[in-house]
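Task: fold both queries, return tokens.
Query 1:
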Amino acid sequence: MAQLIITSKLQSLQYPSQPLGEYVFRSAEGRHEDFDKRLAFIDGDTGARWLYNDTIGAINQFAGGLAQLGVRSESVVAIIAPNCPEFAIAFHAVIRLGATVTTVNPQYTAREIQEQLNDCQPVIALTVSHTLETVVAAVESSSVKSIILLEEESAGSPVSSDIEIPLMHWRNCLSEPAPQAQLDSKKSIAVLPYSSGTTGRPKGVMLSHFNLLSNLIQTNDGQSYGDDDVALAVLPFFHIYGMQVLMNCLLAAGVPIVTLRRFDMEKVLSLIEEHRITRFFAVPPIVLGLAKHPAVDEFDISSLRQVFSGAAPLGGELAEEAAARIGCPVVQGYGMTELSPVSHLTVGEDYKSGSSGTAVADTDCRIVDENGVDQVHGETGELWIRGPQVMVGYLNNPEATSACLDEEGWLHTGDLALIDNDKHMYIVDRLKELIKYKGFQIAPAELEAAIVAFPEVADVAVIGKPDEESGEVPKAFIVLKKGMALSLESINERMLKQLASYKQLVEADFIETIPKSPSGKILRRILRQKN
């Protein structure tokens, strides 16, 4: 049966075969005449400032120190830390040696960290004092030979004699600069972030230097950064979105990055005001805050030129509500860890409400139904993607790799989508999250977009609740604004004006907060456990 391949609207690009870090900093230098004096980072928590030249010098010296500690091209190094300039320094020091970085959520428990370490076998763990106790517990009986703290020794970081494994501060590990390792960019794995993919437990996603470099070029091709742009990076660098779109893409564009260790709306707003932030990268819950949080009116955020949302679908109404309030466009893109991560983004003025944008350069798409039949424009099916940014595969898991990456190089995303006649892509929902009601398919995201638009609602999540008669019925978990009240009957009455009758809620629980991952995805499994 013929394939209906939807190609990118953008012109094809060139992707050099060189190490990621080498490209990132040469790109920045080539873009700016004032490179010698240009800021790379501002630490939003401490106020510390890093020029590009100082950042590069620290990377090269730290790479030399890691080499003396035994890090080789075949080594894996774990970074378990929040956003800070030192995260980027450590990241690029490791990949300069041709070694691989595995990034770990610093909010994980010791058991969760240990599971990841046991799978990828790192030789060194890089962390901060706040998470040191957890990391020490996690590395017991692991491959980790030493722990390095990514903060200044003078900051009072604990170095306890009770810790059996060698523990040191990164500044004390600086040595003679290490040269850039010679490597095959298509075969050398730069990073191993962990993702559940389309199903199952977290798996190590093998992304090569070529995957990341290609997607960096694709992403920046779709963005227009000015000489005076400044970006805020609160989304975590350990997640592929933060790692690539915020850290590497912005570094390559020469855009100063203001880092923040944890999200706090008032702190975010104060940093936007203080540093005249022009680019803010967000997830839907943050966009929701921009639309509805009362603190937004207390700060001058007029410097913002664009808010870019990703990691989860953003409803068109919410995007427009936020844009109207803050006075700048709120757009979105689409990606996943297995795509390095971007496959779609909103380019320039080519905006459509609710759209995730169009495919980045050299990226092909298909929309395929459950029978493997390609769908035409406007019809719904699973989104398949092929391009230079598609992962090498899952670490130690050929079965999972073959389940989502076919022999022709198509990545089966597990997301239900449609693409219109203008090649704009719209995410309908995750296939595995669809509610099947008496043979009908109900997308939770569709119901969530409708309910969150109600003036009484601050946040919402919808799941399928098992039902003997219907298979599943839609149930909502709703966070109300302070002082507001809402009934199930009122919700359904309003929804009936927008959606088919079979999409009405059968049950609604009113709760204080919706559980979400650091990247902004609703943790539906936790909500299902409440049933």
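Query 1 returned. Query 2:
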Amino acid sequence: MFEKEYDVIVVGGGHAGAEATAAAANMGSKTLLVTMNLQTIGQMSCNPAMGGIAKGQIVREIDALGGYSGIITDKSAIQFKMLNKSKGPAMWSPRAQNDRMRFAEEWRLALENTPNADFYQEMVSGLLVEGDKVVGVRTSLGIDIRSKAVVLTNGTFLNGLIHIGEKQFGGGRAGEKAATGITEQLVDFGFDSGRMKTGTPPRVDGRSLDYSVMIPQPGDKKPEKFSYLDTAVLTTQRDCHMTHTSALVHDLLREGFDRSPMFNGRIKSIGPRYCPSIEDKINRFADKDSHQIFVEPEGWHTVEVYVNGFSTSLPEDVQYKALKSVKGFEHVKFFRPGYAIEYDYFPPTQLKHTLETKLVNNLYFAGQINGTTGYEEAASQGLMAGINAHLKINEKEAFVLRRDEAYIGVLIDDLITKGTEEPYRMFTSRAEYRTLLRQDNADFRLTPKGYAIGLAKEERMRKMESKQLKAESFISFFKKTSFNPDEINPILESLDSATVRQSDKLFKVFSRPKVTMDHMLQLDAVSEFVEENELNSEVLEQAEIEVKYSGYIEKEKNNADKLQRLEGVRIPDNFDYSKLKSLSFEAREKLESIRPVTISQASRISGVSPADISVLLVYLGR
């Protein structure tokens, strides 16, 4: 069946596996995606949404590099919101509600239309390793498939165990079996492994809900989209709704705590702190009588509804009884109960920044196998693993993003340098350069890089260059064009902003906090420039942010440049830390284990102090 050798084999067809397959194949590698069920490629296992705080920036970055997630999201979206608009642009985060069935279908079709991508449905039970190098995979039928590189994206399937109350059974997702064999083999190779937990809420019949007593949550009046390409903008949207739990609901849930796998010791692994189950919420925040519940439709036409905020592994009878007491859910019909799932992961300090493992050459890990949670985090790792697998087997330079270049760079650096003992989720607060890493400029930051490695296509590069040229031209116009006080003062008065007595450059008045692009467009010179140069909303937004936040952006660039000097101080691969008696014991232990590539990376390792970094710098002649 498989006489030839593949360049890259990707194991698992979730968000990480799909992006890894697309990236490697689009860069020219003959790629095979092996998954246990070809019908669930790109499956949204939990909530039917993409993006959100910091996650939306990641989707934009994937798109800017030439990945598929942004395009797939736009094609299957049923609602779009830009979150955090009341805050500064570094915090703006796009989020889309999606049609779950269409999302998976669009992923399948996109991959089937990707040259160099082949597919095979079966469980991978082991790896083929010769010496210290992976050379393929072995399936549960005993078929050996050879390749130059392998990317593992097993999600929650490695020895997955599903919990509903006191019942537990093997599975990687509801209705699907767990994957076995790989963990045990990797542990034999010397890898450390651990267990993590995640959960999901019940799915219910929307026809049984009373939306009239809930609070509508509509999308934006002027919805945007994720991809920088010409995907369609939504013209109609579906509302979500919001309701709340109550003291009664909490009391009913507590009745099942003695049968909860979270509280009776059955689940010993750690779950996501920032997405707790409903029982965890009412236990940790006992002073709160109410928690928000978001009622999210699963698609354009299906009646299935996702009960966001009610993730649980309590017995199904307790789930049902409690949910019936939530406002609007009095006559609820379940499609399926919520559940928790435990699965194996491998602490990501065992990886290089390319996501290649340190112990086995040409073997890459991406997604939940690295201890992350979230579609977006998984997809970005899959993209980077696919890119680097292709580059490695073609003896090309590795592709690594710095912390000041992308949220993807922050994510991978955090994982490799600090590791994680709980499911890792991205937040804007994790990025020290978030003013640079905005959702609006991901194309400026990353499309040239994606184009240079052969992933982003010519069309994407030309669109980015055109947008950049127009934005720069518009900013230049503000810097060199003067305003008339008689024209600008009425606008300033309406904003309770100090009026001006003499003419000055538009850039100066536009920099004021209350003055927006809409106000500037009331000026004839500005509106004429926009019309003559056919500037779209993307260019207007870009120019406004660059003008109003130029001081902050410049300061952050300078800080990044300073840190970049430490990135240039490389630590030899075989550096012997035991020679440096001045290092603290903890620093020596951590440095030996993680083997940082640069002084900058070493400085971010927990337990390595500034004094330890000084010792290293002195020894390296700096």
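Both queries returned. Flag for query 2: Residues 354 and 384 are 7 Å apart (CA to CA).
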